[in-house]
Q: What sequence folds into this?
């Protein structure tokens, strides 16, 4: 539910903001070229780059001989349709809360309003000429929402002589690149107009690694990529927040507080990192130029970080520095509302880094993990001492150090 395009794949329909459409078209073209330089001309078929293509719909993927069959490499459609919450994204628009939000904002029906369907039913926003007869606009967030319009690569992507780079050149999105993957997901999982939030839409916080783990996966990631996925995702989230704030002459205080908290966290992560640009709060008042500058800096940061090797050592060292923020938060004279915003960014960071470092597990998490999440509650009921004790207990469980009280 955002006015901005949630997916690069879902290009603006005629009559939409042309400046934004051009921006997303240029990003889309750039994403298609990611990885194309890895092509080897010797044994691969020649493929012409097609920056658009038609959407064939999930029906083109569900055959038992393709992704609707049995076995690890043939059951992706079944995993999506039966387990993935994205397969129920459109259904959310017909519940009572969505109806109340639409009524409050005079949007008509949520299931047909572009402000809602752009994320919950993205094919509704695609130009009709780019939809085949099998592509149903109510198909939720389905295969092509992530992998891109399939007409150019559907027939060839299973050929044995097509490498991954060939598929990318043909138009399949390069989701192995974490920068590309984050860009594919972030807008619908981070951007939210202030009026939608005020009308009752849940607040959005994008976190690539944790949200990927929560997804019923039909793919395999590098086992050492968790820390990098988390960091790239946080940088892209900050870029999107910066973009949103730069559009407003008078951004609301809560949005600025959420933005400042993520800048604070990334500042702690990047301090002393020789391979990374420091992300820090600006000196002086925070003005529109601050958001514009941060948008550019974090996009470059995310792109460069996606190319780094950030494994267990990085995860352990960064985790240690973040766990040591316990005393800073305890002694800070900042208001509890500010500490809450920092805490809601710090907790998933600590959890994802602890998992990447092999000190915690998503399949059998430490009980202290649930306690520190529970201690966050919500801004209105946040209790700093209770939260700090839970964070200290988690720290002790991870590091076997005496808990700070």
A:
């Amino acid at each position: 539910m955002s006015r901005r395009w949630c997916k690069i794949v879902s290009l603006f329909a005629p009559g939409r903001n042309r400046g934004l459409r051009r921006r997303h078209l240029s990003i889309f073209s750039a994403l298609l070229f990611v990885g194309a330089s890895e092509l080897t001309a010797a044994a691969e078929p020649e493929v012409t780059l097609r920056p658009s293509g038609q959407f064939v719909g999930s029906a083109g993927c569900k055959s038992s001989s393709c992704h609707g069959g049995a076995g690890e490499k043939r059951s992706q459609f079944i995993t999506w349709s039966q387990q993935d919450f994205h397969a129920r994204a459109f259904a959310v628009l017909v519940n009572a809360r969505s109806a109340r939000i639409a009524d409050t904002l005079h949007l008509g029906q949520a299931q047909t309003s572009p402000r809602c369907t752009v994320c919950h039913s993205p094919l509704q926003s695609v130009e009709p000429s780019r939809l085949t007869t099998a592509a149903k606009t109510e198909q939720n967030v389905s295969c092509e929402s992530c992998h891109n319009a399939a007409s150019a690569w559907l027939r060839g992507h299973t050929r044995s002589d097509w490498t991954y780079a060939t598929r990318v050149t043909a138009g399949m999105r390069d989701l192995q690149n974490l920068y590309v993957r984050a860009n594919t997901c972030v807008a619908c999982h981070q951007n939210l107009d202030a009026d939608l939030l005020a009308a009752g839409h849940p607040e959005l916080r994008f976190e690539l690694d944790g949200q990927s783990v929560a997804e019923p996966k039909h793919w395999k990631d590098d086992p050492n990529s968790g820390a990098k996925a988390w960091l790239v995702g946080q940088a892209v989230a900050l870029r999107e927040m910066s973009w949103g704030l730069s559009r407003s002459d008078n951004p609301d205080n809560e949005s600025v507080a959420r933005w400042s908290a993520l800048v604070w966290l990334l500042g702690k992560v990047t301090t002393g990192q020789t391979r990374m640009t420091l992300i820090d709060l600006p000196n002086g008042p925070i003005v529109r130029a601050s958001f514009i500058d941060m948008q550019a800096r974090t996009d470059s940061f995310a792109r460069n970080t996606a190319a780094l090797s950030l494994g267990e050592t990085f995860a352990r060292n960064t985790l240690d520095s973040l766990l040591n923020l316990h005393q800073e938060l305890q002694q800070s004279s900042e208001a509890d509302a500010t500490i809450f915003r920092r805490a809601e960014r710090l907790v998933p960071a600590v959890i994802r880094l602890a998992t990447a470092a092999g000190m915690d597990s998503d399949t059998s998490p430490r009980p202290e993990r649930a306690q520190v999440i529970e201690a966050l509650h919500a801004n209105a009921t946040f209790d700093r001492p209770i939260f700090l004790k839970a964070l200290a207990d988690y720290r002790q469980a991870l590091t076997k150090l005496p808990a700070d009280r």
